[in-house]
């Protein structure tokens, strides 16, 4: 009977792992494989040297100190939660989830590690790695958004399907994805936890990139709360609607506006730009402090 792995995928990571017993029995009857993961009956001890890294692992940065702390815990407590692997050959396995535990076990001097074994194709490997990555507690909002985007594009999912995979409704998924439309400087600030997702969700309601960067600067300078930013954004957006009703001043060509917007995003500050009908003009780069000036000079690769 043909297997139906997609049905398991629709129930999230836990269901994926719970189905491993059925997959494994059907393809590797000669080995002592897992009986029922959900009941915790049987777990294999696999030599660490036989386990390959997951090529689809979305997480590439592991905190060294946290790994060392986990290694010390493993020395005392052992592996509490087994890793999950897929079998490639008789003595070769590929990691699906549990890379931190695997690395920490090597640091702790272990030679083998308890593991669940399941069958999975490359598509399932990617989905499971991304979903497990999303479920980490310390993941920042941009990392979650990027993982959601990868599931949509690389796994060819729709937002409703993605919501089923990660246990979130479509609105929540969309709120994360919208963060990826913000300028790079703001995305970096979210990733580095200089501003919260609440700040970012308020900023994204502003259509103009320059104004988004202005609000971002004010958040950092004045340590604005999310509520204050939301009030500020309401003022700005209401002002935008009234400005549209005023007679339009002479505007720059569309191409020049695009250049101005990209420059503002690149330098992390609102760039002033003027251009006449002969395509002559000027560009102004404002700075707020000596440190801000040095930051801009670094971007320009100017040495003093």
TrEMBL record:
Coiled-coil stretches: none
GO cellular component: chromosome
Alphabetized GO MF terms: DNA binding
Biased composition annotated in UniProt, kind: Basic and acidic residues: 26-35
GO biological process: chromosome segregation; positive regulation of sporulation resulting in formation of a cellular spore
UniProt cross-references to InterPro entries, sorted A to Z: Chromosome_partition/occlusion (IPR050336), HTH_ParB/Spo0J (IPR041468), ParB/RepB/Spo0J (IPR004437), ParB/Sulfiredoxin_sf (IPR036086), ParB_dimer_C (IPR057240), ParB_N (IPR003115)
Chain positions covered by the region annotation Disordered: 1-39
Record bears the keyword DNA-binding: yes
Family: Belongs to the ParB family.
Record-given protein name: ParB/RepB/Spo0J family partition protein
Record organism: Marivirga salinarum
Upper lineage: Bacteria, Pseudomonadati, Bacteroidota, Cytophagia, Cytophagales
């Amino acid at each position: 009977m043909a297997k139906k792995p997609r049905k398991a995928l629709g129930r999230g990571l836990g269901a994926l792992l719970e189905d491993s017993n059925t997959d494994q029995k059907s393809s590797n009857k000669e080995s002592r494989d897992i009986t029922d993961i959900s009941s915790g009956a049987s777990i294999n001890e696999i030599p660490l040297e036989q386990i390959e890294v997951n090529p689809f692992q979305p997480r590439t940065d592991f905190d060294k100190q946290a790994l060392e702390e986990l290694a010390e815990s493993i020395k005392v407590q052992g592996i509490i939660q087994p890793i999950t692997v897929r079998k490639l050959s008789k003595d070769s396995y590929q990691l699906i989830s549990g890379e931190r535990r695997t690395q920490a076990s090597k640091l702790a001097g272990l030679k083998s590690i308890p593991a669940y074994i399941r069958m999975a194709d490359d598509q399932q490997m990617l989905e499971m790695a991304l979903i497990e990555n999303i479920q980490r507690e310390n993941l920042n909002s941009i990392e979650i958004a990027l993982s959601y985007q990868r599931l949509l594009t690389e796994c060819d999912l729709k937002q409703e399907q993605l919501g089923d995979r990660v246990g979130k409704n479509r609105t929540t998924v969309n709120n994360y994805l919208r963060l990826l439309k913000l300028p790079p400087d703001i995305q970096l600030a979210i990733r580095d936890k200089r501003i919260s997702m609440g700040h970012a969700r308020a900023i994204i309601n502003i259509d103009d990139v320059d104004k988004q960067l202005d609000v971002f600067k004010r958040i950092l300078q004045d340590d604005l709360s999310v509520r204050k930013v939301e009030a500020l954004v309401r003022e700005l957006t209401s002002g935008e609607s009234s400005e549209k009703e005023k007679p339009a001043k002479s505007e720059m060509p569309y191409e020049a506006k695009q250049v101005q917007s990209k420059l503002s995003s690149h330098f992390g500050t609102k760039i002033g730009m003027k251009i006449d009908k002969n395509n002559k003009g000027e560009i102004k780069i404002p700075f707020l402090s000596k440190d801000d000036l040095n930051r801009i000079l670094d971007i320009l690769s100017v040495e003093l």
